[in-house]
Amino acid sequence: MKKIALILAAALGLVCGASGELRLNRMYGSHMVLQRGEPIRFSGFADAGRTVTVTFRGETRQAAVAAAGTWDVAFPAAEAGGPYEVTVTDGASVHTLRDVMVGDVWFCTGQSNMFWPLSQSGEPERELAAADHPDIRLLDVALTGALEELEEVPYVRGWSRCTPETARNFSACAYHFARTLRERLGDVPIGLIGSGWPGPPISHFLPPAQPPHEARLKASREALAEAVRGFAEEDRLRSRCRTLFGDEARLGAWAAAGPTGAVERVSLPDKKGLEHTVLKDFSGIALFRRTVEIPDAWAGRNLALHLGSTILPTVAFFNGVCVGRVKTWDAPIPGTNPQAANRFTVRAADVRPGTNTVAVFLGCNDRLSWWSGLYGKLSLSPDGSPEAAIPLAGDAWTCEKLAIPKPGPTQGGSWGARIHPFFKMPVRGVLFYQGEADSRRPAADYLADHKRFIGLLREGWKRPDLPFYFMQLANHARARNGENGFCEVREAQRLTAEQVPHTGMACSIDIGEDRNIHPQNKREQGRRLALQALRKTYGCRDVVADGPQFRELVRAGRTATVVYKPSSAQLLVKGGVLTGFEARAKGGAWTPVAAEVRDGCVTLTAPFEIEDVRYLWQNYPNPEAVLFDGTGLPAVPFRTCSGDE
User: Helix/strand/coil (H, E, C) string of 193-213?
Assistant: First the structure.
C-alpha cells in the first residue's frame, strides 16, 4: 500500500524528488505546534541521493534521501516552549520554519458538527472578537479524499496563529476545546488539526474495505489532482473577493461599468431565500442591479433607500456612488439578531430626474447563508415622505457574480488523504464528533465500527493508550418513520466510553436544537470535550468530566431504583419535576413513569411490575433533559434492555 501511495503522490506532483526541489511535508509549517514529550520528527521530499540537514533548538540531524525521494529525521523529545526556528537544507536550497512551538497537538475529525465554523456558531461576533490566542495554532485540512493511503496530505491551508480572521472558518468545537485547555494549562501551546468533513457515515473515516483495482486508482488520482488544483484556485479567489469587497472604489467602478460578464435575471425579494435563485450552490460576490425612474419633483432632495434586511455583508451604490455598507466580508453572522436592516440615505447631489441605477453587492463565502435573502421592504422614497415610495421589489433586477469555485469531493473517504498522512506527526490525542449520518444503523453495528476506528488510529500513531474523546449526539428532532436512530447511535457511543480504555464521551443531550442538526452552543460542547481531556489526559483531579451515568437497576416490583456512577447526592432536577424516564413490564409497552431523586439515586414508580427502564430515549426528548449533577453536566441517556423494542 505504501508503494502505491508513493506512485500516486509522484503522479500528482506531491513528491518533488524528481525535480530536485527540497521541501517539507505539507503538515509542517511556520507557526506550527510540535508534540511535547514525544520524539520530534520532520519529514519531506528532495532529490534522491542528497543529504538533508535539519537544525532545531541548537541541535542538528541529517538524513539521506531515499530512492523514493523521501527523507525523515527525528530529534529528542522536548518540553513545552518556543518560539523556535527550524532550518532545512540539502546543500542546494534552504527552508526555514519560524515561530514554531512545542506543546500539545490534537487531531480533530468527524462530520459537519466538528467541521462547523466558529463564524456560524452561537454569538459569533463576541466569540470572534475574543479569538486572539497567540499560543493556539490552527491547521485546516482541505476536503480531499483518496482511495489510497497517501504519505502526504494533498492540500492544507497552512498553520496559523489563532486570530479572529483565522478562527473564523475553523471548527468551533475544536476552538472552544483549545480555549478551555489554555485557561487551565497556562503556558502549554495547543495545536489543532482540523480535518472534519460534513455529512459522511463512520465508514468514510475507515480504510477502504477492499483493495482498489487499478481503474479505481486511476480515477482517484485524476479526481484528487483536480481537487488540489481547485483548492488552490478557491483560496486565490477567496482572497480576491475579500480584497474587492473592502474596496469601495473598485466596487463602484464595477457597478458603474455595466454588465461585464454573464447576467441573469432575478426577482427580489425571494420569499424562499436567495439559495433558491441564481445563487444556488454559489459562494463569492453577487452584484444585483436595476434602474429606477425618478420624478422631476424629487430632484434636489435626499432619498431613503430601503433594501430590506439580511445577514449578509452588503454594500449599496446609487448612480455609482456608495451610499453605505452593512458588515464587512469577514463579518460573522450575529447569533441573536441575524437580520440587519439595509437602510441608506442617497444625497440630493447624486439624484437626477429620469433613469437612475441602484446597485447592491452581497457577499457570501460559505455557501450556507443565501437563505437570508433580502427580506422586507425594498423601496426608494423622498426623505421624510415614505408614502411616496417607489417599490423596488420584483423581477427588474439583474445579477452578476464573482464566484469562488468549490472543488468537489474526490473519490474515497477521509482515511487515506486526511487521517493516514498525519501518523508521521505525534499528537496528544483525537477529538471526534460524528454519528448523525449513521442514525439508521443498529447500535451494535455502529459500536463495532466506532471501536475499529479507535483501534486503527492507535495502531497508526503507535499509541495503544492514545486519548480519544468524542461528542455524544445532541438532541435533535430527526426521525424517519418514527425511528429513534439518534438514540441507537448515542447508546453505541455510551458503550464505547464504557468498554474502550482511554476514551471519554461528552454528553450534549441538553444542548441540541429541535430543527437544527448543528447545535449553536459549540462553546459548551467544546468545553465538555476539554473537561474529558483535563480529567483523563492532564490529570486534573478537581475537574468533573462526566455527568451521572447509569450503573444498575434495582427492581422491586412496581418500583425500581436507578443507581448512577459515581454514586452521588448531587443529582439536581431543573424545574423541580423529574421527567424523561419510561418503564415497561415484561413484554409490555413503554410508558412514562413517575420519578424522584432519593439519596443520590432515582426512584421510579409504575402501575405494573417494572422489567426495563430507559431515560431520554427519543431523538429530541420532550420534555427536555432536567436531570443534572452539581456542576451542570446532564445525566446520560440509557436503556436497560439490549436492543429489543
Answer: EEEECCCCCHHHHCCCCCCCC
